[in-house]
Write a structure and sequence with these properties.
Elements (H helix, E strand, L loop, with lengths): L2 H20 L14 H16 L3 H7 L5 E3 L20 E6 L3 H16 L3 E2 L8 E6 L4 H20 L8 E6 H5 L1 H7 L5 E3 L7 H9 L3 E4 L22 E5 L1 E2 L10 H5 L3 E2 L2 H13 L4 E5 L7 E2 L3 H4 L22 E2 H9 L6 E5 L8 H9 L6 E3 L7 H7 L5 H14 L4 E8 L6 H14 L3 E6 L7 H5 L6 H24 L5 E9 L6 E5 L5 E5 L3 E2 L7 E2 L6 E9 L3 E10 L4 H12 L1
Parallel strand pairs: 1-7, 2-3, 2-4, 4-5, 5-6, 6-7, 8-11, 11-14, 15-16, 16-17, 20-24
Antiparallel strand pairs: 9-10, 12-13, 18-19, 18-23, 19-20, 21-22, 23-24
InterPro entries: Elp3/MiaA/NifB-like_rSAM, Methylthiotransferase, Methylthiotransferase_CS, Methylthiotransferase_N, Methylthiotransferase_N_sf, MiaB_methiolase, rSAM, rSAM_horseshoe
Protein name: Mitochondrial tRNA methylthiotransferase CDK5RAP1
Family: Belongs to the methylthiotransferase family. MiaB subfamily.
C-alpha cells in the first residue's frame, strides 16, 4: 500500500470514529470510548478543522494510477505542494517557436526557474526538463510542435534507464488551446503552463516529479510579470526584447491571440524603464518593445494614471470593436521616456496595429534620433471587402491615407507588413487588390502566409474556409513574387547611400563577411576589415559584434543591402562622421 492510500484509509477511519463519537457511541474497534464534555468540545474543533481541508474524494482522485493536477479546478490554494527538493540538480532545456513574444516568454520562464534553483543547458542530451515554448497562430506551427513532441516522447522512452525522471512540458499558446488533447488524450507531456502561468512552473514541475501530470492554463486580467526580471539570452548583449504589454482586444476574425493570450493589460511604466536602464548598463545597443498590440499600451497601474483625462486617439479613418478607452499613460508617453534613457541605444517596437498611430506617436519617432525610422504596418489584405470580413476596423483607402501621413511626417521611413492570402470568401479580384496595394506602398520587409482557420475565432464560428488549399498556395506564391520585386526596388534606391549598421555577427554565407541591420531593419552585408575610429586618425580597430559602423551601399536585392564599411560610429556621432568623411572625399 502506498503512502497516499495509507493516509486515505487513516483519514477515513478517523472520520468514521469521529462520527460515532459525536453520536455518543463507544467504538472499541477504533480505539474510542465515551468521553467528557471537554473531549466533546475538542472533537467538534477537530471536526471543524477537518471540514476545511481536502475531501475524501480528493485523496481518492490523487491515488489513481493516471494522476493529473489541474489548476483550473484547484480549490485549496493553502495546500501548496512544496517545490522540488532536487531542483538544484535539474537542468532545463528550452526550445522556442513562433514570434518574439515567445522569445520574451522564454526569458521570463527561465528567470523564474533559475530563482527556484534550476540550471540551464543548451544541449538536449543533458536535459532533465525539456520545455517547448509554443505558437498557435497557424496550423503549420502547431504541426511542427506535434511532430517534435512525438520525437521527444520516443526519446524519453529510450532514455528510461539513464534518464528515468526526464520531464517534457509545453508552455505558451498551444498549452492553453490544446490542453485536453496534450495532457489527457495524447499524453505526450508532463507539464502544461499557459502564457499567464509561468510563475507556477516550479510547483507544476514538483507535481510532475511526484508522478502527476500538472497543468495551469488559466488566463489572467492582470498578469504582466512586471516584477520578474527576464534573463536575456542575447549574443554578447547587443540587442534585447522587452515585453511591455500582453493580450489583445481587437478580436480580428481570423486571430487566435485573444483566446490564447487573453485581454490587453500593460506593464507598469516604472518596471519597463528599470529593465531598459539595466540593459543599457549592460551595454545593450538595441531594445525592441514587445506586445501583441504594442502601440495600444496603456498603463493603469496607479490611481492618478487612471483618472487622467486622456483617451485613445486612433489613426484617422480607423475604428475598433470596443468602446474608446479612457485614462492611463499611453504608448507615446512610454516611447518618450524609454528613448531618453540612452541616446546611443536604438529603440524598436513590434507588433503594432495600424489603428494606434496618432500623429503624436509619428512626430516622436521623427524627432528622436534613437527611435528607428521603421514601422511595421500589418495590412493583411488590400481589399476593403476582405478587411471588413477580417474585422480589421479600416478600409483600403484609410490604410493608404495612413501610409501617406506616415511618410509625410517621417521622410525616408521604412515600412514592413503582414499579409494573409486565401481568407474566407476571398475572390481573385480581392487577391489582385492585395497585389496592387503591395505595389503602391512598397515595403522593405514582409511576412506572408496562407490563411489557416483556428478554432474559437469569429471566422471559425461565422465564416466558411471556402478557398481551396491549392488556390491559397498559388496566390501566396504570386504575392511573394510581387513582394520581392517591390522590395528589390525599394532597397536598390538605397544604393550609393551611407547606412548606420549595428553589427550582429558574421554572415551566414562567409566568415570573411559581417552582417547587421540598418535603421530600417534591413540586413546589410559587408567585408570584414579593421576600421578607423576617427577619420583624422590612422589607428585601425577590428569590428566586433555590437559595434555601430557606417557602410557605403554598393548593391541591393530584395533580401539585403551590400556595401563596404567606412568607419566606427554611433547614433550620436553619425552626422559628424559623415561630414568628416565627405570633407576627406572632397
Amino acid at each position: 500500500m502506498n503512502i497516499s492510500s495509507s493516509f486515505t484509509l487513516c483519514r477515513f477511519t478517523f472520520r468514521k470514529c469521529l462520527s460515532r463519537r459525536l453520536q455518543g457511541d463507544t467504538c472499541d474497534r477504533y480505539y474510542c470510548s465515551k468521553s467528557s464534555s471537554t473531549d466533546q468540545t475538542r472533537v467538534v474543533q477537530l471536526k471543524n478543522k477537518l471540514a476545511c481541508g481536502p475531501s475524501f474524494q480528493d485523496f481518492i482522485k490523487s491515488s489513481t494510477s493516471d494522476k493529473s493536477y489541474d489548476a483550473c479546478n484547484d480549490e485549496y490554494e493553502e495546500y501548496h505542494i512544496p517545490e522540488c527538493t532536487t531542483a538544484r540538480s535539474q537542468k532545463v532545456y528550452f526550445e522556442t517557436y513562433g514570434c518574439q513574444m515567445n522569445v520574451s516568454d522564454t526569458e521570463i520562464a527561465w528567470s523564474i526557474l533559475q530563482k527556484a534553483g534550476y540550471s540551464r543547458t543548451h544541449e538536449l542530451p543533458e536535459a532533465d526538463v525539456v520545455l517547448l515554448v509554443t505558437c498557435s497562430v497557424r496550423e503549420k506551427a502547431e504541426q511542427t510542435i506535434w511532430n517534435r513532441l512525438k520525437h521527444l516522447t520516443a526519446l524519453k522512452k529510450r532514455c528510461q534507464k539513464h534518464k528515468p525522471l526526464l520531464k517534457i512540458g509545453v508552455l505558451g499558446c498551444m498549452a492553453e488551446r490544446l490542453k485536453t488533447k496534450l495532457l489527457e488524450q495524447e499524453k505526450l507531456v508532463d507539464v502544461l503552463a499557459g502564457p499567464d502561468a509561468y510563475r507556477h512552473l516550479p510547483r507544476l514541475l514538483s507535481l510532475a516529479y511526484g508522478g502527476q501530470r500538472a497543468s495551469n492554463v488559466l488566463l489572467s486580467l492582470e498578469e504582466t510579470y512586471a516584477d520578474v526580471m527576464p534573463v536575456h539570452q542575447t549574443p554578447e548583449g547587443h540587442s534585447a526584447f522587452v515585453s511591455i504589454m500582453r493580450g489583445c482586444d481587437n478580436m480580428c476574425s481570423y486571430c487566435i491571440v485573444p483566446f490564447t493570450r487573453g485581454r490587453e493589460r500593460s506593464r507598469p511604466l516604472s518596471s519597463i524603464l528599470e529593465e531598459v536602464r539595466m540593459l543599457s548598463d549592460q551595454g545593450v545597443k538595441e531594445v525592441t518593445l514587445l506586445g501583441q498590440n504594442v502601440n495600444s499600451y496603456r498603463d493603469l497601474s496607479e490611481q492618478h494614471f487612471i483618472c487622467s483625462e486622456g483617451s485613445t486617439q486612433l489613426s484617422r479613418g480607423f475604428k475598433t470593436v470596443y468602446r474608446t478607452k479612457q485614462g492611463g499613460l499611453l504608448f507615446s508617453d512610454l516611447l518618450d521616456k524609454v528613448s531618453q534613457i540612452d541616446p546611443d541605444m536604438r529603440i524598436r517596437f513590434t507588433s503594432p496595429h495600424p489603428k494606434d498611430f496618432p500623429d503624436e506617436v509619428l512626430q516622436l519617432i521623427q524627432e528622436r534620433r534613437n527611435i528607428c525610422k521603421q514601422i511595421h504596418l500589418p495590412a493583411q489584405s488590400g481589399s476593403s471587402r476582405v478587411l471588413h470580413a477580417m474585422r480589421r476596423g479600416y478600409t483600403r483607402e484609410a490604410y493608404l491615407d495612413l501610409v501617406e501621413n506616415i511618410r509625410e511626417i517621417i521622410p525616408g521611413v521604412s515600412l514592413s507588413s503582414d499579409f494573409i492570402t486565401g481568407f474566407c470568401g476571398e475572390t481573385e479580384e480581392d487577391h489582385q487588390q492585395t497585389l496592387s496595394l503591395v505595389r503602391e506602398v512598397g515595403y522593405n520587409v514582409g511576412f506572408l502566409f496562407a490563411y489557416s482557420m483556428r478554432k474559437k475565432t469569429h471566422a471559425y464560428h461565422r465564416l466558411q474556409d471556402d478557398v481551396p488549399a491549392p488556390v491559397k498556395q498559388c496566390r501566396l506564391e504570386e504575392l511573394i513574387s510581387v513582394f520581392r520585386e517591390e522590395a528589390a526596388k525599394v532597397n536598390m534606391a538605397l544604393t550609393g547611400s551611407t547606412q548606420l549598421v549595428l553589427v550582429e555577427g558574421e554572415s551566414k554565407r562567409s566568415s570573411e563577411e559581417l552582417c547587421g541591420r540598418n535603421d530600417g531593419n534591413v540586413k546589410v552585408v559587408f567585408p570584414k576589415t579593421d576600421l578607423p575610429v576617427q577619420p583624422e586618425k590612422p589607428q585601425m580597430v577590428p569590428v566586433t559584434l555590437g559595434d555601430y559602423v557606417l557602410v557605403k551601399i554598393t548593391s541591393a536585392n530584395s533580401q539585403c543591402l551590400r556595401g563596404h564599411a567606412l568607419i566606427h560610429s554611433s547614433l550620436n556621432d553619425r552626422k559628424t562622421s559623415e561630414h568628416l568623411l565627405s570633407k576627406q572625399t572632397i
